[in-house]
Design goal:
The chain has 341 residues and is an alpha/beta fold. The protein has 15 helices and nine strands. It has a domain at 41-57 and 71-195 and 197-233: TIM Barrel. The mean pLDDT is 94. Bound molecules: coproporphyrinogen III (CP3). The site of coproporphyrinogen III has 21 residues, from β3 and β4.
Length: 341
C-alpha cells in the first residue's frame, strides 16, 4: 500500500507531500452523477458495491494519496431511526427537532453491525481493492447536535440555536453524551472493519467561544480520541472557522489537525505544537479561479508547511460542487512534483 499519507500523519519523512480532498467523493465528478442512484444520497451509500465504487472514483481520476469512505456524518443517526432525513440538494432535515431532554429517548443505542452493516461491508470491499489508505469518519457531537436541534439545513440558524441551548445545560449535556457514545461506536466499528485512519468532523464548532468550547465540547472530543488511542492510527480532527479554538483542539487527543484556509499553517503550528501533522489548507473557492491563481495558492500553502510537522495537503473545507475535476487533478500533480524528494 502507498504509505505517504500514513507517514506524513505520523510526522515522518515522505517521498512527496500526500494529497486528498475533503468531499472528493461525489460532488463534481460526472462519473459520480452517472452512478449515483435516484433519491437521496442514502440510497447510494447503503449499497456496498456502489459506495465502494464512488469511493474509488477520485483515486483513479485525481491520483490522490488517500480515499475517504463515501458515506455521511448523519448515517448512524438515520440508521437508529432518530428522525433524520437526507434531502437532495439540501442536506440533513429533522422534521421534529430535538429541543428538550424528554426527546432524547428517540436516540437509542447504536449497534454498528446491525444498524450499518452496509458501511462495514463497503469498508471490507475497499480494503481489498485500494492501494491507498482508507479514511473512515464521523461527525463530532456538537455538529451532529446542531442538526438535531435546528432540524433544518439553514445552517446559520443551527449555530444560533445550538448556542442558545447551551443555556439548557442538562439537555445539551445529555444530548452530547448520547452522541459521544454513538460516535465512539461508529468509529471503533470502522477501524475494526479495516480503515487506516479516521477523521472527526466538527464542521460547525467554530461558532462557539473558546470558553464554551472548552467547557461544553472539548471533554466529549477528548473522550472520543481517548477511546481510540490504542488503535495507533492517525486520528484527524477538523473544524471550520476555528482559529480561536486551535490551541484547545490541539489538546483533544487528535494526532493530526485539519486547518481551514483562514490560518497559515505556520501560524497554526505555533498554536498546536503537540500534534504530529497538519492537514490543509487551500481555500476551496480558489479552485474556481484561473489556474495561475490556483497555482499561486498551492505554492503558498506548501511554503507555509515547512517545519517540524508532517503535512497532508488538502483544501481548507470540502470540494465545492462547481469545481472542475481537471483543476483538482492538476493540484495533485503540482503538489507531488513540487515536493518530490
Ligand atoms: O467525499 C467525501 O468527503 C466523503 C463523503 C462525505 C459526504 N459527507 C458525502 C455527501 C463526507 C465526509 C461527508 C461529511 C459531512 N456531511 C459533513 C462534514 C464535512 C463538512 O463538509 O463540513 C457534514 C456537515 C455533512 C452533512 C451534509 N451532507 C450536508 C450539509 C449535505 C448537503 C449539502 C452539500 O454540501 O451538498 C450532505 C449531503 C452529502 N453528503 C452529499 C455528499 C456527496 C451531497 C451530494 C448528493 O446528494 O449526492
Amino acid at each position: 500500500m502507498k504509505t505517504t499519507f500514513l507517514n506524513a500523519s505520523g510526522g515522518e519523512p515522505t517521498s512527496h507531500t500526500p494529497v486528498w480532498f475533503m468531499r472528493q467523493a461525489g460532488r463534481s465528478l460526472p462519473e459520480y452523477r452517472e452512478l449515483r442512484l435516484a433519491g437521496s444520497i442514502v440510497e447510494s451509500l447503503c449499497q456496498p458495491e456502489i459506495a465502494a465504487e464512488i469511493t474509488m472514483q477520485p483515486i483513479r481520476r485525481y491520483g490522490v494519496d488517500a480515499a475517504i469512505l463515501y458515506s455521511d456524518i448523519m448515517v448512524p443517526l438515520i440508521a437508529i431511526g432518530a428522525g433524520v432525513e437526507m434531502v437532495s440538494g439540501k442536506g440533513p432535515v429533522v422534521a421534529e427537532p430535538y429541543r428538550d431532554i424528554h426527546q432524547l429517548k428517540r436516540l437509542r443505542a447504536f449497534e454498528p453491525e446491525e444498524d450499518t452493516g452496509f458501511v462495514l461491508e463497503t469498508i471490507e470491499i475497499l480494503v481489498k481493492e485500494l492501494d491507498v489508505p482508507l479514511i473512515g469518519f464521523a461527525g463530532a457531537p456538537f455538529t451532529l447536535a446542531s442538526y438535531l436541534i435546528e432540524g433544518g439545513p439553514s445552517r446559520n440558524y443551527a449555530w444560533g440555536k445550538a448556542a442558545m441551548y447551551l443555556e439548557d445545560e442538562p439537555f445539551f449535556q445529555a444530548l452530547l453524551d448520547k452522541l459521544t457514545d454513538i460516535v465512539i461506536a461508529s468509529l471503533k466499528s470502522q477501524i475494526e472493519a479495516g480503515v487506516s485512519a479516521i477523521q472527526l468532523f466538527d464542521s460547525w464548532v467554530g461558532v462557539l467561544s473558546a470558553y464554551d468550547y472548552e467547557k461544553y465540547v472539548l471533554p466529549h472530543t477528548q473522550k472520543i480520541f481517548q477511546s481510540l488511542a490504542h488503535y495507533n492510527i492517525p486520528l484527524i480532527h477538523f473544524g471550520v472557522g476555528t482559529s480561536h479554538l486551535l490551541h484547545l483542539m490541539g489538546d483533544s487527543g487528535a494526532t493530526v489537525l485539519g486547518i481551514d484556509w483562514r490560518v497559515p499553517l505556520s501560524e497554526a503550528r505555533k498554536l498546536v505544537p503537540n500534534v504530529a501533522a497538519l492537514q490543509g489548507n487551500l481555500d476551496p473557492t480558489l479552485c474556481l479561479a484561473e489556474w495561475s491563481q490556483v497555482e499561486k495558492g498551492v505554492l503558498k500553502v506548501l511554503e507555509e508547511s515547512q517545519g517540524d510537522f508532517g503535512h497532508i495537503f488538502n483544501l481548507g473545507h470540502g470540494v465545492l460542487p462547481e469545481t472542475n475535476p481537471d483543476i483538482l487533478k492538476a493540484i495533485v500533480e503540482l503538489v507531488h512534483s513540487q515536493t518530490a524528494k
